[in-house]
From TrEMBL:
<comment type="similarity">
    <text>Belongs to the DOCK family.</text>
</comment>
<dbReference type="Pfam" id="PF20422">
    <property type="entry name" value="DHR-2_Lobe_B"/>
</dbReference>
<dbReference type="InterPro" id="IPR027357">
    <property type="entry name" value="DOCKER_dom"/>
</dbReference>
<dbReference type="InterPro" id="IPR026791">
    <property type="entry name" value="DOCK"/>
</dbReference>
<dbReference type="GO" id="GO:0060326">
    <property type="term" value="P:cell chemotaxis"/>
</dbReference>
<dbReference type="GO" id="GO:0005886">
    <property type="term" value="C:plasma membrane"/>
</dbReference>
<dbReference type="GO" id="GO:0005737">
    <property type="term" value="C:cytoplasm"/>
</dbReference>
<dbReference type="GO" id="GO:0031267">
    <property type="term" value="F:small GTPase binding"/>
</dbReference>
<dbReference type="GO" id="GO:0005085">
    <property type="term" value="F:guanyl-nucleotide exchange factor activity"/>
</dbReference>
<dbReference type="Pfam" id="PF20421">
    <property type="entry name" value="DHR-2_Lobe_C"/>
</dbReference>
<dbReference type="InterPro" id="IPR046770">
    <property type="entry name" value="DOCKER_Lobe_B"/>
</dbReference>
<feature type="domain" description="DOCKER">
    <location>
        <begin position="1"/>
        <end position="260"/>
    </location>
</feature>
<feature type="coiled-coil region">
    <location>
        <begin position="137"/>
        <end position="164"/>
    </location>
</feature>
<keyword id="KW-0175">Coiled coil</keyword>
<dbReference type="GO" id="GO:0007264">
    <property type="term" value="P:small GTPase-mediated signal transduction"/>
</dbReference>
<dbReference type="InterPro" id="IPR043162">
    <property type="entry name" value="DOCK_C_lobe_C"/>
</dbReference>
<protein>
    <submittedName>
        <fullName>DOCK4 protein</fullName>
    </submittedName>
</protein>
Length: 260
């Protein structure tokens, strides 16, 4: 079918490279496009056959199931990838002059949402895209979403650790380490320099609520980390005590940089 777009569900645990190879074997004359950008008109008009393959993220319909406490994780993970109509992919890009010291300032995201005719998975493993919507997210909106997702991930890992659903605590250790490390190595300061300075606030009067939201999320993250470290302390094995102590020390540095 010419100039059509489909969302396809790969095999279980199939990597993107393997899926691409499988599709190219099915269409031996096709030219593989190496990027996810919207193709230009010459490609739409071309006689040759082109295949553009990229990964998309499912957007679950049942948000309330996913956010409600007390629902088992296996049910949540089912709803994350089943009965899905909408999928999306993000393309980061820089607008205006890029600050080498602080890339957050100019980092926009072009978000494309694909809406299917039927929900996946269905009778078939692939369905045609009925319509696509493209929006641009500003650097501030992007920062808010990154923090919301990270806070949610931390909460989930902490609760799995508390309810002993986690066989080993490595995922929690790695997540705490990643967040605290990023914050101490300038993450917090970069956000503050980008969005909390007078210059930004005066130039973007419409962003008042969003700036407040970002500040709330940063403070909320500090609370989640504090609680997460307390849970971690109870379950951390002897050989990982030094790492735990390093995390606690770094966390205090992070808190002071937030002005808590």
């Amino acid at each position: 079918a010419q100039n059509k777009e489909f969302v396809c569900r790969g095999h279980d645990y199939e990597r993107l490279e393997a899926f691409q190879q499988r599709m190219l074997n099915e269409f031996p004359h096709a030219i593989a496009m190496q990027h996810a950008n919207q193709p230009d008109e010459t490609i739409f008009q071309a006689e040759a056959q082109y295949l553009q393959i990229y990964a998309v993220t499912p957007i679950p319909e049942n948000q309330e199931v996913l956010q409600r406490d007390g629902i088992p994780d296996n049910i949540k993970s089912f709803y994350k990838v089943n009965h899905i109509w909408r999928f999306r992919y993000d393309r980061p890009f820089h607008k205006g002059t890029k600050d080498k010291e602080n890339e957050f300032k100019s980092l926009w995201v072009e978000r494309t949402t694909l809406i299917l005719m039927q929900s996946l998975p269905g009778i078939s493993r692939w369905f045609e895209v009925e319509k696509r919507e493209v929006v641009e997210m500003s650097p501030l909106e992007n920062a808010i979403e990154v923090l919301e997702n990270k806070n949610q991930q931390l909460r989930t890992l902490i609760s799995q650790c508390q309810t002993r659903q986690m066989q080993n605590i490595n995922p929690l250790t790695m997540c705490l380490n990643g967040v605290i490390d990023a914050a101490v190595n300038g993450g917090v300061a970069r956000y503050q320099e980008a969005f909390f300075v007078k210059e930004y606030i005066l130039n973007h009067p419409e962003d008042g609520e969003k700036i407040t939201r970002l500040r709330e999320l940063m403070l909320e993250q500090a609370q989640i980390l504090e609680f997460g470290l307390a849970v971690h302390e109870k379950v951390v094995p002897q050989d990982m005590r030094p790492l735990h102590k390093k995390l606690v020390d770094q966390f205090f540095v992070m808190k002071s940089s937030l002005g808590i």
